[in-house]
Specification:
The complex is a heterodimer of chains A (116) and B (112).
Chain A (H helix, E strand, L loop, with lengths): L3 E4 L2 E4 L5 E7 L6 E7 L6 E7 L5 E2 L8 E7 L2 E6 L8 E9 L5 E4 L3 E5 L1
Chain B lengths: L4 E3 L2 E5 L4 E6 L6 E7 L6 E6 L5 E4 L2 E5 L5 E6 L8 E8 L8 E2 L3 E6 L1
Parallel strand pairs in B: 2-11
Antiparallel strand pairs in B: 1-3, 3-8, 4-5, 4-9, 6-7, 7-8, 9-10, 9-11
The chains are: A mainly beta (116), B mainly beta (112).
């Protein structure tokens, strides 16, 4: 079946550094990918919608200059958390729509970010 | 951000019991989805509902899309220990292409 990978699966960084998280569709093309954030014991909250070749659309309250999204190819979207702070510590999950599978959707396994 | 109201928040049941949880929204959705999430992993799709009134089963799981399109429920029959996890409902305005809005989650614990 269709697979979405995320890299890294977990990352620990110092406050003030930037962290890049990759979301890759392994066996299908994804014109649209969504990025979610999940704090401990909470639900998934949509951060932004990423479309290949165009600017991402951010949800209200999500700082676009802090969470940089690049969807440069049909199989890769990246989320960069710039100048990370402890409150950015969270589980980041991507969701990809498979173009050739009638936009069936697949979640990545998530990336756990811990900012010290 | 917008969230759907899901209840109960948590459930502690004995193996073999049936479980029911539901999800409500103030606005209409055209697709309802139910997911299970294990710790440290992404959500896994359990059941998808595309039509108001639809009742769909997947093994021991049964879900229904409410007639008003503002609610959905999920039933798990004869629970087993591996049913432990967090269950999320999710609503979508447009089939598959639109953003998913998630419910607040129901944490299920099954005791042998």
């Amino acid at each position: 079946g269709a697979v979405v990978s995320q890299h890294p699966s977990w990352v620990i960084c110092k406050s003030g550094t930037s962290v890049k998280i990759e979301c890759r569709s392994l066996d299908f093309q994804a014109t649209t990918m969504f990025w979610y954030r999940q704090f401990p014991k909470q639900s998934l909250m949509l951060m932004a919608t990423s479309n290949e070749g165009s600017k991402a659309t951010y949800e209200q309250g999500v700082e676009k200059d802090k969470f940089l999204i690049n969807h440069a190819s049909l199989t890769l979207s990246t989320l960069t958390v710039t100048s990370a702070h402890p409150e950015d510590s969270s589980f980041y999950i991507c969701r990809a729509l498979a173009l050739e599978l009638n936009n069936e959707q697949f979640f990545g396994p998530g990336t756990r970010l811990t900012v010290l | 951000g917008q969230q759907l109201n899901q209840s109960p928040q948590s459930m502690f049941i004995q193996e073999g019991e049936d479980v029911s949880m539901n999800c409500t929204s103030s606005s209409i959705f055209n697709t309802w989805l139910w997911y299970k999430q294990d710790p440290g992993e992404g959500p896994v799709l359990l059941i998808a509902l595309y039509k108001a009134g639809e009742l769909t089963s997947n093994g021991r799981l049964t879900a229904q899309f409410g007639i008003t399109r503002k609610d959905s429920f999920l039933n798990i029959s004869a629970s087993i220990p591996s049913d432990v996890g967090i269950y999320f409902c999710a609503g979508q305005k447009t089939y598959n292409t639109d953003k998913l809005i998630f419910g607040t989650g129901t944490r299920l614990q099954v005791f042998p």
